[in-house]
Amino acid sequence: MDFDTSVHEHFMREALEQARCAADCGEVPVGAVVVKDGQVIGRGHNRPLSAQDPTAHAEVLALREAARTLGNYRLDGCTLYVTLEPCTMCSGAMLHARVDAVVYGAPEPRTGAAGSVLDVFGYAAINHQTRVLRGVLAAQCSALMAEFFQLRRLEKKAQQPHPLRDWALRNADEAFAGLPAWPWQPQWRSDLPALQGLRLAVVDEGPEDAALTWLCLHGSPGWGYGFRHLLPDLLAAGHRVVVPDLPGFGRSDQPKKDKRHSAPWHLQIIAELIEALNLRRLVLVGQGDGGRLGLAAAQALPERFAGAWLIDTWPLNTQPQQRQQWFEQAARKPGWDVASAMAELDGSSNAEEACAWNAPFAQPGHRAALKAWPRLQTELAAPPADLLQQWAQADRLWLQPAVTQQPVSAAQWQAAWLQAVPQLAAQTRVWRQTQPGAPVPAAQQGGGAAAVEYFAP
Ligand SMILES: [Zn+2]
Hints:
InterPro entries: AB_hydrolase_1 (IPR000073), AB_hydrolase_fold (IPR029058), APOBEC/CMP_deaminase_Zn-bd (IPR016192), CMP_dCMP_dom (IPR002125), Cytidine_deaminase-like (IPR016193), Epox_hydrolase-like (IPR000639), tRNA_aden_deaminase (IPR028883). Zn(2+) binds at residues 57, 87, 90. This protein has helices spanning 5-24, 48-51, 58-70, 88-97, 138-159, 231-236, 263-276, 289-300, 321-332, 338-346, 351-358, 368-379, 385-393, 410-420, 447-455; strands spanning 31-36, 39-45, 78-84, 101-106, 131-133, 168-169, 187-189, 200-205, 213-217, 240-244, 254-255, 282-287, 305-311, 397-400. By secondary structure, the protein is an alpha/beta fold. It has two domains: 5-158, Cytidine Deaminase, domain 2 (3-Layer(aba) Sandwich); 169-455, Rossmann fold (3-Layer(aba) Sandwich), CATH 3.40.50.1820. The termini are far apart. The structure holds zinc ion.
């Protein structure tokens, strides 16, 4: 090459100028100029995205312009300056154009065809020889690329504030679109320390300074949807309603391994959520084992709770065989149909609601929580007898059996509660009757309105 270093650097700066144009357009910042007799006769910057053209590399565009300037497809006596080591296509194009020399800045270790991955210019058998000069203003050329990709990563991160952990799975939003009686969009949060980056779905409706906040906690295999008929009544009373989906259920992320699930972990997440949202004057609405987890949270944070309404919550760690079998089937059978199992409990079934129950578990591998649940049930803390008695005496406790007599009868269920908390024997007002229709009584049955009246501060 006949030019000295300062001449090469001068033209590389022109190529860098082109590269910045590419970056401004959101293209990978690569720029090129073609020089003949000390004059720039062609310029180009990367634009495959905007041109929708896989061949629209900076070098190709600069070669085309140079050929037009010269009125000749041969570019004898020309030097091409490019900020990044050319790919095979561009190197080939330069050979076809009979470019004298190529000068590049930064090496491209993944696709570079001028020495890095392969060396298209190094074959003596190819009849035209193009000389190669490497590393001119390499630091500046590399910095421009690094800056561009860093910015793009930050933008991507800003668009996706809750990245999916590699140990977790996520259901598509579309699977939960348009469910009947469920217009509520969750707020997503992954900032609670116990979540370790998992995305948690939390429906949070109503005013922050409400007289009461209803914390609705589902059990397995349900999710917040089970409370759909309650929300309108509670919100109509001016109250706040907070409905999280526990990890592994509903719209929250699901750990791939059942070992991730434990009762203390779920409890920690619930407690951290209560503190993060600064929830006070809480009434726990617990369905199934969600009631047990909620009671453990109330025991840990008693000053934040005003009472509880527990529906189909089994109070003992030993359970009747039918109940145990029900959860073991859910755990063991990968094809266990959640919707028809829920319909049995519910006493009703409807196709749209079946979609809601099956949606969280529709994908293969999305059942770690179901698998973990029988073990998790043995880890639940005993119900806090003193707290329950205190609530019962203040008319702040409702205990309600399952809608149907499945998998345990109402009599079995009540006997279990009296075994767990004998003091409740004297509290006749805590026992609620259930009407068929939904795991949690429907609005039209007055469940929500009656609760508002009973628990009113
Ligand atoms: Zn190329």
